[in-house]
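Morning!

As promised:
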Amino acid sequence: MDPLLNPEEIRLLELLESKDFDALTAEERVFVATQLPAAEYVLQRRILTGIDRQEDEIPQPRPLALPSEKSAIPLLRRTVPLYQAVLAIAAVWTCFFWLWPNERPADMPQQIVSADTIPTSSAQAEQTPQIVHDTVVRYVPVYQSTGKTPQQADLPESFQKADNYQATSAVLRGTELRSTLPLSALTPENIATSGTSLKEDQLSFLVPDIRDFQRR
Amino acid sequence: MVEVINHHSHAAITDLHARYSRKLLGYFIRMLNHDTELAQDFVQEIFLKILEKKHLYDPSKKFYTWIFTIASNMCKTEFRKPFSTSISADEYELTTRAGLGEDLLEKQRFNALLEKSLQQLELHHKTVFVLRYIELFSLQEIAEITDTSLGTVKSRLFYATRKMTAQLKAYDPRYENNLFKMN
């Protein structure tokens, strides 16, 4: 990018455009001499004025070939003002929501299907639930108080002998019930441990006695 | 032009073509390194562009300036494609022809060199130079056409002339001798 001219350079350009070196006044010649040699001024002046405009050498232009009046400009090359484009987009947007409003009935049935069942008969196929839509529904859990605490009568048989506190805890840990033994199964034979106690183990001398540490 | 804008009439655009096509052809020939065929195509194209972009015309401004703005932009687009020309030492001798007077010979030789050095300018320098000293636009009009400030136009003219002077000095020892003598 060229730097902007200082006032002296602007004056020099104006002189170059307007006067031959011979037509310069004495003061202008002195000014020019501070900027460039006189021969260079003459050459620059000759460049500006001497360039041949060659108007007679310009050939005749070809006759204008216009497309037919109806289809003067191809549709895809036609340009429109910006406001027309914006209005067109707004109109399309409005029409879209007018024709297909974004509404869904509140009681619209929803079926969530597990797709791992392959129907083996036509009757089963008819019963096979269909995917209605793929909308992900977020269920908001609502907790309602039943006003009833678990009673002994509601509990499984195996817990009927336990007290209320234990039974309530067990109900809340519902998933653990399946792996819990019934009370009747808790016999001394069933709960007996197997293996050798530390006292009877011959290798127990290898285990340090913590009482020695406590004494220290 | 107003008639073209309003009625898009073929008669009006034909009239514009008759009025400006030669001027534009001369401009394109010079800007496109004397490729006359390409310049003829550009003249056709510019009148189609006028029809396409008629809504962009500001009636408060000169039509002549506007049409040269389009022409200048077309050249700018074209010049993004690389090209190269250079003044060879042989060019210096090319214009010597037998049978012509000494002055005429010298003038022809100078003009040929001048034309070559013009072709070697960068596009932004060449554009302002051609618009100013060949198409004879005012500085303000050139600023409008090139979408730059008045100061930028002056600066480009100044440095364009300097570059051409340097090239001409290099290929014509007489100027170097004169400079030596005057200094």
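Residues 86-100, 179-183 of chain B have pLDDT under 50 and may be disordered.

Hope this helps with the figure draft.
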